[in-house]
Predict the structure.
Amino acid sequence: MKFETRAIHDGQQPDAPTGAIVVPVYQTSTYQQEAVGRHRGYEYSRTDNPTRKALEVAIASLEEGKYGLAFASGVAATTAVFSLLQKGDHIIAGDDIYGGTYRLLEKVFTKWGIKTSYADIDNIDSFENAIQKDTKLIWTETPTNPLLKIVDIKKLSEIAHEKNILLAVDNTFASPYFQKPLLLGADIVVHSTTKYLAGHSDIIGGAIVTSDVKLYEDLKFYQNAAGAVPGPWDCWLVLRGIKTLALRMKEHEKNALYLADYLSRHSMIERVYYPGLKTYEQYELAKRQMDGFGGMISIELKGGFPAVEKFISGLKLFLLAESLGGVESLVCHPARMTHGSLPYDERMKRGIKDNLVRLSVGIENKIDLKNDLKNALSSL
Ligand SMILES: *Cc1c(COP(=O)(O)O)cnc(C)c1O
């Protein structure tokens, strides 16, 4: 069945005991057992919970993977993937990644003897060149945060698999509606469900999908052992969000295309990063690997940080906030916000300049959004 249908039905059959159409919020920590050692598949909600299970099946289906696992946050899901490694192992990560992933690698996993090298996201050969004998995992985002660079997942999976290295892709920015990394050769897909999957800026959550049973078993063991699981209410809200994912993504993209085109012709804008612009360097790759270009746009303003401050304070609809992927439009200044944990030199090296502004384009009316940007830009 097609994506839109699976989003509404997979994992979400009517509740067997009652016929409830919507998967109930199973707000319970434990389950009555029929006899010692005999139960109905549920023993304790850290291990398994029916609402969470429904979400795990639904997300796996959207990614066209076999197994899904839900976590308490995107970072918790990321931690689970890194925890597959042992002391002495090496990770290669693209150098344009979520600031919190960088912080996790540098401030947490280094303590446990796991080292990371950062490959130049603009040059796929740099991933291959960074391979060491202890390299066990390649980690990338695509489109990346915040510069919306596109990484060739198929090529990267070939580079990884030739050396028996796992490839994990953080698919948060594209959502499974626009990109399915497992079908392109990735071993593991990670999501911050906080973003497009939940889609309404009302929960924090994460997920992993894989089709490899051994990886699933290891990650499932970790999920229960480390315990960073989401509660049933949050799972329920992500399930609700998933039902309209296809509709929302189409609107996010339609609005983003319209605004990116407008911004790229504005005299106060130095540069627009949006993979859906035909003039964008990686447009062809994005078109080949994705089914759409998503709702995230980054721009560089003329006039440096003072212009950024003025622009942001002139916006009325685009709200100044971290996060992305909700129905409402948000604006963020990566250098001071999402990527504030990067040291200055690292940030410059990665091209996250002080005049960079990131827009999460919501599903409001596109003319209203354009007028909001136009107003704020006219004050510069
Ligand atoms: C937000 C985000 C994360 C972290 O997810 P949380 O739900 O905030 O823990 C990871 N990767 C990307 C690309 C993100 O945008």
The CA atoms of residues 271 and 300 lie 5 Å apart.
